[in-house]
Amino acid sequence: MNKAMTILYKVHNNLYVNLTNRCPCACTFCVRLSMDTVSSIDERSLWLEREPSYEEIVAEFDKYDMADFEELVFCGYGEPTERLDVLAAVARYAKERFSCRVRVNTNGMADLIWGRDTSAEFAGIVDVVSISLNSPDPEKYQAVVRSRFGEKSFHAMLAFAQNVKRHVPEVVLTTVETVLTKEEEERCAEICRNIGVTYRIRPWE
């Protein structure tokens, strides 16, 4: 495992924010198990030497022209809501300075991490929340994500999705193509219809 202080990095047409390596899950499919980075453009390790401060993060933006990017995405080698206060502060800074579109990629366990309903904390600073659904079945979900919170994680994730949609314009639940059966994908689609969010099948990368 190589470590660095890669705080911002590019993937496709987006700029990503790497806040932390902490995560309540140990997903069986996680790319962290086999590589140090997810970007073919920027090959610096996403394993952090330490967690960057708010000041260090915003200073990194001076290295980039935000007009070059479609979105600012909070998604690194950890669960970004582990540092929800810093995430919110950086998102607010980016919104005010660049008027950019902001997305948070999350496992949806912020409420379990913080022991409260966190959904309102995304209001006005986040445009899209993308949540990994992974499976329509709570037991299979836990077998895949191996959350330290146990099987209640599945229902907490769905409750977070339902709550946060009241505060952000777009909420998306995702699965990965080829991982689920067509019947399981239809069940995932039904879950999304029932709670009023978008379902997206991500390509395998």
Can you give keywords for this protein?
205 residues, alpha/beta, TIM Barrel, seven-stranded mixed β-sheet, two-stranded parallel sheet, 6 helices, 19% strand
What do these coordinates show?
The chain has 205 residues and is an alpha/beta fold. The protein is globular, with a radius of gyration of 16 Å. It has one domain: TIM Barrel, CATH 3.20.20.70. The strands form two sheets. A seven-stranded mixed sheet has the order 2-3-5-6-7-8-9, with helices on one face. The chain has a two-stranded parallel ribbon with strand order 1-4. The longest helix is centred in the middle third of the chain and has 15 residues, at 84-98. A hairpin with a 2-residue loop joins strand 2 and strand 3. Helices cover 30% and strands 19% of the residues. It is built from six helices and nine strands.
